[in-house]
Design brief:
alpha/beta; 2 domains; eight-stranded mixed β-sheet; four-stranded mixed β-sheet; 26% helix; globular
Length: 393
């Protein structure tokens, strides 16, 4: 038994807009994705039998992509701890609140707590720039060997229209264009070709972007090359909120406590994470020059939040996913609070420590793939190999 059953899969198309992550992982064909499923199955089997059903349910949850990636994050953290020579117990009752943190970890003569949390940047699914998944999938299925398209939603209808006319119009328009001619004209400052479509209250504007000669002719390639920018930019403190939530959940643990944050973000920045924990940087101007300092607004440096010393460190990985597991280096942000118990440091973790107002970084002693039991460049091969149309001899 496992999360995924070994079977013959034939659909190697990239993830569809209307497809959940659980459906995608189950459906996608190819050696690259077979490796992913095999490792997920193996790591899942390393959990105690009583913990496996809940993980299985979350990994196969077609109604919540967050559930899927939260479970994948727990699999990753658990396997990293095991591969670092730790013994891991699941959800033991610890702390003055009588609750059950994720992992009680033993390594040699030391014990510590690790609590895993997944946090993802919110996407605007209802704003004026959004497109129903069925329409996005219809556009992506338009045969377009020579062009990508970008689109803009100019007007939103009250119902989702039939996609047949949209696909037919786009197919005829794109087939009428010569990619070499469009490229030459664009180099002479001629705007890219545009096409307007409207139906049932919807108005969309399209732009044709020539594929480079080496990228033409692939019938499996997506047609949409650029989506409108739809992420919400007002949640830069997501990581801070996640740590605050977990940091106050268990009361006094009497053991070093590490919050492990899987940080899914469009443009993750170390500077933002550094400011969230140690305070944002500030420059003070003087007559003779300027000096730098930190505002007292960090998780550990805010004067009114001394209880945050319960958290010994925060382990972060930006955009962890199966295809980045063997590549992304975890960073342990160590607490500077005098009352914090020292956080253990595993060999595959980079560390960050606040010294005065400066953050000192130390590289990991070993690459992360060594604690995961994976090759350095895993998964091996291409996620979406190019397939050219067949030709008759």
């Amino acid at each position: 038994m496992g999360v995924y059953i070994s079977r013959h899969r034939t659909d190697a198309a990239p993830k569809r807009a209307s497809e959940s992550d659980a459906e995608f992982f189950e459906r996608i064909a190819g050696p690259f994705w077979d490796q992913v499923r095999d490792v997920i199955n193996e790591w899942w089997s390393h959990f105690p039998p009583d913990a496996q059903p809940g993980l299985h349910s979350r990994l196969r949850d077609r109604n919540s992509d967050a559930n899927v990636f939260s479970a994948l994050w727990e699999l990753y953290v658990h396997e990293m701890l095991l591969g670092s020579g730790c013994t891991v117990e699941i959800e033991q009752q610890i702390g003055t609140e009588g609750k059950y943190p994720d992992f009680l970890v033993s390594r040699g003569n030391e014990q510590f707590i690790v609590e895993a949390i997944w946090t993802a940047e919110n996407l605007d699914a209802t704003g004026s720039s959004s497109l129903p998944p069925q329409m996005a999938d219809a556009i992506d299925r338009v045969p377009s060997p020579n062009f990508y398209v970008s689109y803009q939603v100019d007007s939103v209808g009250s119902t989702t229209p039939q996609q047949k006319r949209l696909k037919n119009e786009l197919t005829r328009w794109l087939a009428s264009l010569d990619p070499d001619q469009v490229t030459a004209e664009y180099e002479q400052k001629v705007p890219l070709p545009k096409h307007a479509w409207q139906e049932a209250g919807w108005r969309l504007s399209f732009e044709a972007i020539p594929r480079s000669p080496g990228r033409r002719g692939d019938p499996t390639s997506r047609t949409i090359g650029i989506h409108p920018s739809v992420w919400v930019a007002d949640d830069s403190d997501r990581v801070l909120k996640a740590v605050r939530k977990k940091g106050r959940k268990y009361g006094d643990l009497a053991l070093p406590f590490i919050v492990a944050v899987g940080n899914s973000a469009v443009f993750p920045e170390d500077e933002d994470t550094e400011g969230a924990f140690y305070g944002t940087s500030v420059e003070y101007a003087h007559r003779t020059g300027s000096t730098f300092g930190r505002n007292p607004d960090g998780y550990w440096t805010a004067a009114q939040d001394q209880s945050h010393s319960r958290v010994s460190g925060v382990l972060t990985v930006d955009n962890p996913a199966p295809w980045t597991w063997a590549k992304k280096v975890p960073v342990l942000w160590q607490s500077p609070a005098p009352g914090s118990l020292p956080a253990p440091v595993l060999p595959t973790w980079e560390t960050a420590q606040l010294t005065d107002i400066h953050v000192e970084r130390q590289p990991a002693a070993r690459p992360i793939h060594t604690s995961l039991g994976l090759p350095e460049h895993w998964p091996i091969g291409d996620a979406f190999p190019r397939r050219r149309p067949s030709t008759e001899s």
